[in-house]
Amino acid sequence: MPYFSTIELTPQVSMLLAHGALRLNPGQWVKSEKGLGRFLRTDPRSGTTYVSWLRPGDDWETASQRFHRACRKGFVGKYRRLYDGGKARRAVSDPEVMSVGQ
Domain coordinates of the chain in residue numbers? Predict the structure, then answer.
């Protein structure tokens, strides 16, 4: 994997991410006033950027496990192909919720 320097999440960079003019890879290190974290994804509908932030006192293993869980839960990266199966399971478990969104 090539080295990418840490990206500063300024308001301008967040705006570019929200409008699709800039793309980051999942796992890319980002920095903002919240601290240091790893980029997950940007929701194209709302423009919200999701980051797995490092917590004070985290070691590498704990932070890595949290990022991995966030990727699985958010269907990010290699877990994106699992989204259709997760959507179908949610429809079966709660059909009322799915009928409202359609």
Answer: 7-101
